[in-house]
Design goal:
Layout lengths: L1 E10 L2 H14 L4 E8 L11 E9 L1 H12 L4 E7 L2
Protein backbone atom coordinates (compact mmCIF):
# COMPACT_ATOMS: atom_id res chain seq x y z
CA UNK A 1 0.00 0.00 0.00
CA UNK A 2 1.33 3.41 -0.98
CA UNK A 3 0.50 6.35 1.32
CA UNK A 4 2.67 8.78 -0.64
CA UNK A 5 0.06 9.72 -3.22
CA UNK A 6 -1.40 13.20 -3.19
CA UNK A 7 -4.39 14.26 -5.26
CA UNK A 8 -5.26 17.89 -5.90
CA UNK A 9 -8.86 18.50 -6.92
CA UNK A 10 -10.15 21.84 -8.23
CA UNK A 11 -13.90 22.22 -7.97
CA UNK A 12 -15.82 24.86 -9.91
CA UNK A 13 -19.55 25.50 -9.47
CA UNK A 14 -19.53 23.93 -6.00
CA UNK A 15 -23.28 24.33 -5.67
CA UNK A 16 -23.90 21.89 -8.51
CA UNK A 17 -20.89 19.55 -8.20
CA UNK A 18 -20.50 19.12 -4.42
CA UNK A 19 -23.03 16.31 -4.04
CA UNK A 20 -21.51 14.19 -6.82
CA UNK A 21 -17.95 14.82 -5.59
CA UNK A 22 -18.92 13.88 -2.03
CA UNK A 23 -20.56 10.68 -3.29
CA UNK A 24 -17.33 9.68 -5.06
CA UNK A 25 -15.16 10.57 -2.06
CA UNK A 26 -17.41 8.52 0.22
CA UNK A 27 -17.04 5.54 -2.12
CA UNK A 28 -13.23 5.76 -1.73
CA UNK A 29 -13.29 7.00 1.88
CA UNK A 30 -11.36 4.05 3.34
CA UNK A 31 -8.42 4.96 1.08
CA UNK A 32 -8.34 8.68 1.91
CA UNK A 33 -6.02 9.21 4.87
CA UNK A 34 -6.14 13.02 4.89
CA UNK A 35 -8.56 15.48 3.30
CA UNK A 36 -8.01 19.24 3.30
CA UNK A 37 -10.57 21.59 1.77
CA UNK A 38 -9.65 25.13 0.73
CA UNK A 39 -12.05 27.65 -0.75
CA UNK A 40 -11.63 31.05 -2.36
CA UNK A 41 -12.57 33.93 -0.11
CA UNK A 42 -14.81 36.49 -1.76
CA UNK A 43 -14.69 40.18 -0.90
CA UNK A 44 -18.34 40.28 0.13
CA UNK A 45 -18.09 37.30 2.54
CA UNK A 46 -20.34 35.05 0.46
CA UNK A 47 -19.56 31.43 -0.33
CA UNK A 48 -17.15 31.05 -3.20
CA UNK A 49 -18.29 28.99 -6.19
CA UNK A 50 -14.88 27.27 -6.40
CA UNK A 51 -12.47 25.48 -4.13
CA UNK A 52 -9.57 23.04 -3.88
CA UNK A 53 -9.33 19.68 -2.13
CA UNK A 54 -6.01 18.09 -1.21
CA UNK A 55 -6.23 14.34 -0.59
CA UNK A 56 -3.59 11.99 0.82
CA UNK A 57 -4.37 8.52 -0.50
CA UNK A 58 -3.33 5.15 0.96
CA UNK A 59 -3.98 2.62 -1.77
CA UNK A 60 -2.55 0.98 -4.83
CA UNK A 61 -1.85 2.98 -7.96
CA UNK A 62 -4.75 1.40 -9.86
CA UNK A 63 -7.28 2.51 -7.25
CA UNK A 64 -5.82 6.03 -7.15
CA UNK A 65 -6.06 6.27 -10.94
CA UNK A 66 -9.66 5.03 -10.80
CA UNK A 67 -10.58 7.76 -8.28
CA UNK A 68 -8.78 10.36 -10.40
CA UNK A 69 -10.73 9.26 -13.49
CA UNK A 70 -14.11 9.34 -11.71
CA UNK A 71 -13.51 12.83 -10.33
CA UNK A 72 -12.42 14.14 -13.74
CA UNK A 73 -15.66 12.82 -15.27
CA UNK A 74 -17.66 15.28 -13.14
CA UNK A 75 -18.32 18.52 -15.04
CA UNK A 76 -16.49 21.40 -13.33
CA UNK A 77 -13.97 19.16 -11.54
CA UNK A 78 -10.29 18.76 -12.40
CA UNK A 79 -8.16 16.24 -10.47
CA UNK A 80 -4.42 15.55 -10.68
CA UNK A 81 -2.59 12.70 -9.00
CA UNK A 82 0.99 13.03 -7.72
CA UNK A 83 2.84 9.89 -6.67
CA UNK A 84 5.74 10.78 -4.35
CA UNK A 85 7.36 7.32 -4.38
Amino acid sequence: MNCFQIMAVKIEQRETTAVEVQKILTEYGCHIKTRLGLHDQTCDNTCSPSGILILQLCCGEDLAEELNKKLNEVHGVKAKLVNLV
